[in-house]
Amino acid sequence: xxxxxxxxxxxxxxxxxxxxxxxxxxxxxxxxxxxxxxxxxxxxxxxxxxxxxxxxxxxxxxxxxxxxxxxxxxxxxxxxxxxxxxxxxxxxxxxxxxxxxxxxxxxxxxxxxxxxxxxxxxxxxxxxxxxxxxxxxxxxxxxxxxxxxxxxxxxxxxxxxxxxxxxxxxxxxxxxxxxxxxxxxxxxxxxxxxxxxxxxxxxxxxxxxxxxxxxxx
Amino acid sequence: xxxxxxxxxxxxxxxxxxxxxxxxxxxxxxxxxxxxxxxxxxxxxxxxxxxxxxxxxxxxxxxxxxxxxxxxxxxxxxxxxxxxxxxxxxxxxxxxxxxxxxxxxxxxxxxxxxxxxxxxxxxxxxxxxxxxxxxxxxxxxxxxxxxxxxxxxxxxxxxxxxxxxxxxxxxxxxxxxxxxxxxxxxxxxxxxxxxxxxxxxxxxxxxxxxxxxxxxxxxxxxxxxxxxxxxx
Lengths: 217, 232
Prior knowledge:
The structure holds 2 protein chains of 2 kinds.
Chain A: H1 4-14, E1 20-23, E2 33-36, H2 41-50, E3 58-67, E4 70-80, E5 89-99, E6 102-111, E7 116-124, E8 133-135, H3 144-155, E9 158-160, H4 198-204
Parallel strand pairs in A: 2-7, 8-9
Antiparallel strand pairs in A: 1-2, 3-6, 4-5, 6-7
Chain B: H1 31-39, H2 47-56, H3 68-77, E1 100-104, H4 112-121, E2 127-131, H5 132-137, E3 159-161, H6 168-183, E4 208-209, E5 214-215
Parallel strand pairs in B: 1-2, 2-3
Antiparallel strand pairs in B: 4-5
Helix pairs in contact in B: 2-6, 3-6
């Protein structure tokens, strides 16, 4: 099978307007993936499916990732020569910047015809709050139907062009997206016989306050 | 049936003798005497005993499973373990025909109202077995955002079977425990069984789906958190 770099180059040659980023995986598996821009994702996906060399005709897995806003500290080191002629001083300047978060949909593609795969593609939303729309790939791979509904349910990505975008696991009246990092689960910690860690902290709120210690005579 | 407290008449003879357990409805005849009579072809019993014997040996469970415990429940019904030996092999697909609800598996908050509704649809007398760690307390998924921390928050549970999942033998043992419980139930008197009493509810409120959790999150008439253990 072609490497992801080769696939990316072929895609860029075919669709010059598309923006494709190679997301490297530093782990031992080194399963690199391709990040598509949302505008051209549908035609890129159709090409991957219909290309005779790749024939990625099966989407085995679609899942979501929540990337929260992240504070990044940049350290800039500057060398200041000592006017007295000594060793130059190194001054560190720290600056923090916010890396905006996003929601991500990840698709694992295989080829039944060629018996190879996976090719991993990713799509990212603009942010986590109001611009959370991505093109649905269900029209390309039918097996994405329930999995995109699950991503919509648990992460809150709205898939444009999905034939039946409803909640899958949670009930319809549910108001949140439980797999997001900042989700706070409902407070039902009244009875935690073996609580520890964060559970213990939440369980303590339900326990009656300990009686004040009697002062020793 | 009436709840008027009937004054239990104290047995006059042999009450203090060791090993003597007065048979409640048969006056002062001891179990040993009854056994002796039975060997001579005289069966002495009471309606209560006959009634309880009959229904304890034909407990029809509701045919539904929620998670992996259901697989063990199915295994208990197969030839190797054979729940039919205890008269409970007829799994009814309708709650109207079922006597026993085996809550076998994780109860998600989405499923909980449906379980309570099925329980309400079952006719009395009805019994509930919480099978496995999840049905008892939420089990390994206790801290999950969508797992009910025990079905006893909404319906009364008669028998708890721990295990993850419990083996079929454990389910059979739980069933035997339930049979013994049924055989010991009174039909009249101040300590009559729950299903004979008008003041004990047979149906329980079905929780609604809220914005984040079930509403209410528990039925306080059935369940309230135990007081935490005293610190020494």
